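User: Could you go from structure to sequence for me? I need the amino acid at each position, not a summary. Structure tokens:
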């Protein structure tokens, strides 16, 4: 490359997913260690046909690079008028080929800003597996503080 040429740049966009994005959401979910779900069965929860005065809603934020979805994060919003104005971040996923580039940080900063500025939430919570050191480091670097540790038991039958 000659010195007058500029390196190619990519365009990142973060937007709230729409029903037509379900196939992209399912594809990104396939890279998650979280339990699977049937988003088609729960589509009302994700795309606004629940009553926000009595039920939480979940917004799905898609991170796109040059129009291709490469990451997502979900933000559960408490019902309107709830005393504890606390959101819940879940299912933060970056496509494996795109990890290590700071995209999760960019996406989470956007979700946090949206929660604070657009929704006037007072806090956001999340859970993380204690073995997921890179996610823990990211969350702590963004200002998340450990609230408590949970133990999860199972009795195989």
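Assistant: Here is the amino acid at each position, in order:
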């Amino acid at each position: 490359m000659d010195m007058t040429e500029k390196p190619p740049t990519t365009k990142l966009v973060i937007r709230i997913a729409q029903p037509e994005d379900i196939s992209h959401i399912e594809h990104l979910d396939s890279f998650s260690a979280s339990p699977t779900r049937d988003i088609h069965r729960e589509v009302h929860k994700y795309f606004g046909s629940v009553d926000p005065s009595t039920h939480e809603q979940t917004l799905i934020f898609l991170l796109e690079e040059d129009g291709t979805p490469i990451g997502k994060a979900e933000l559960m919003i408490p019902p309107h008028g709830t005393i504890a104005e606390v959101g819940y971040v879940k299912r933060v996923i970056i496509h494996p080929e795109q990890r290590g580039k700071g995209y999760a940080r960019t996406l989470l900063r956007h979700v946090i800003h949206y929660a604070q500025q657009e929704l006037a939430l007072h806090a956001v919570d999340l859970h993380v597996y204690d073995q997921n050191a890179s996610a823990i480091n990211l969350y702590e670097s963004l200002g998340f503080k450990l609230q408590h540790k949970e133990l999860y038991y199972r009795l195989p039958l």
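One structural detail worth keeping in mind: The chain has a mean pLDDT of 86.
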